[in-house]
Design goal:
10 strands; single chain; alpha+beta
C-alpha cells in the first residue's frame, strides 16, 4: 500500500505544501498505476485508489498558493438500501487511519439514515493531532449517484494541515473584505 500520511502530512510520500504542478508530474510518472488522475482548478481527483480493502476516490485540495493542504478519501456513492456497505467502507478507512494516526480521540455510533442531511459530514472517528485535522465520517450527496431518488451516501476520511488551512481561511477573509470595500 502506498504511504497514507505522516505526522508532517503527506499522501503517497507527497508532503503538504507541495506545488500542484509537482504533484501532477509525480502522479503521471507512476509506473503500473491502477488509478486514474484528473486535474481540476484547485484540486486533483484520483479514482480507483486502493486504501486497505477498498477502491476509493481521493481528492487532493490546494490552497491559495496552489500547494497541497488537504486530502480526502471518498467511497463509491451508494443508495440508501446499501448504507450497510457505506458503514463497512467507513470501518475500512477507520482501520487504516488507526494504523497511521493511532487511537482516535473519539468514535461515534453511525447515524440513522433519517438523521443525515446533504451538505454535512457526520463523524465516525476523529483524532487529536497538533498539526493535522483528521477525521472519518459519512456524507450525503447527489453527484454521480446511481440511485433513482438521486441521493447517495459516502464514507469519507480527511486529513488537513491545520496551519495551511488557517492561512487559506485568512486569505479568503482578506479577499472578501477587499471586495466589500470596492
Amino acid at each position: 500500500m502506498a504511504a497514507l500520511a505522516s505526522g508532517e502530512g503527506s499522501f503517497m510520500d507527497i508532503s503538504f505544501g507541495t506545488p500542484h504542478s509537482e504533484i501532477l508530474k509525480r502522479l503521471s510518472g507512476q509506473k503500473d498505476k491502477a488509478y486514474s488522475v484528473e486535474d481540476h482548478k484547485g484540486s486533483v481527483t484520483i479514482s480507483n485508489f486502493t486504501l486497505g480493502n477498498e477502491k476509493l476516490t481521493v481528492l487532493l485540495l490546494f490552497d491559495h498558493n496552489d500547494r497541497l493542504y488537504s486530502f480526502e478519501y471518498h467511497s463509491r456513492p451508494s443508495p440508501a438500501a446499501q448504507f450497510s456497505e457505506v458503514k463497512k467502507q467507513a470501518d475500512n478507512i477507520n482501520a487504516v487511519f488507526k494504523g497511521e494516526y493511532g487511537k482516535p480521540a473519539g468514535c461515534y455510533k453511525a447515524p440513522l439514515l433519517s438523521q443525515l442531511t446533504e451538505g454535512r459530514v457526520y463523524l465516525s472517528c476523529d483524532w487529536d493531532d497538533k498539526y493535522l485535522a483528521v477525521f472519518t465520517g459519512y456524507r450525503v450527496g447527489r453527484e454521480k449517484c446511481p440511485s433513482p431518488d438521486n441521493v447517495c451516501y459516502y464514507s469519507v476520511g480527511s486529513v488537513t494541515s491545520e496551519e495551511m488551512a488557517r492561512a487559506l481561511n485568512e486569505d479568503m477573509n482578506k479577499n472578501r473584505r477587499r471586495r466589500r470595500h470596492k
